[in-house]
Backbone:
């Protein structure tokens, strides 16, 4: 679980989502990949991410870059919405043990938030780490102006 103190929000990734994401870790000579994050509930300050999409054949994948195809992404958002899942952000990989967002990553998530039609107060950006430890991934919430990095919430 990840937490943003500034926004008083927690993000929880289901075990199935974490297991699925781990398949895409950017190890060896793999290219960056990515997809979208979805939730089935937006009614509390704990957001459960319980569905992801993966890259399509029309996405651009490079060693140090991932650009999703906008038309394919919108089709996936519409399809999942009809099935009760809300789009809440994007994920992609970096070939780092403890990834940091690039300037472009931050610019993209803020722009995406501003240009999209939604009623959300944030979008999620997840940069999947190269290591087996999901908690080393970069997770943040973007509201169009500011990106709030989330911290790993330790359970007592």
Residues:
């Amino acid at each position: 679980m990840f937490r943003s103190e500034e926004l008083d929000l927690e993000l929880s990734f289901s075990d199935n989502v974490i297991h699925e994401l781990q398949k895409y870790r950017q190890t060896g000579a793999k290219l960056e990949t990515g997809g979208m994050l979805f939730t089935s509930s937006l009614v509390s300050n704990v957001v459960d991410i319980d569905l992801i999409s993966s890259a399509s054949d029309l996405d651009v994948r490079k060693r140090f870059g991932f650009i999703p195809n906008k038309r394919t992404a919108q089709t996936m958002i519409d399809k999942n919405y009809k099935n009760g899942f809300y789009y809440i952000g994007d994920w992609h990989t970096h070939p780092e043990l403890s990834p940091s967002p690039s300037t472009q990553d931050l610019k993209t998530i803020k722009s995406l938030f501003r240009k999209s039609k939604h009623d959300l107060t944030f979008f999620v950006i997840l940069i999947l780490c190269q290591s087996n430890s999901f908690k080393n991934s970069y997770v943040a919430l973007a509201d169009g102006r500011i990106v709030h990095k989330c911290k790993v919430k330790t359970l007592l």
In short: DSSP finds three helices and eleven strands in the chain. Residues 70-82 form the longest helix (13 residues).
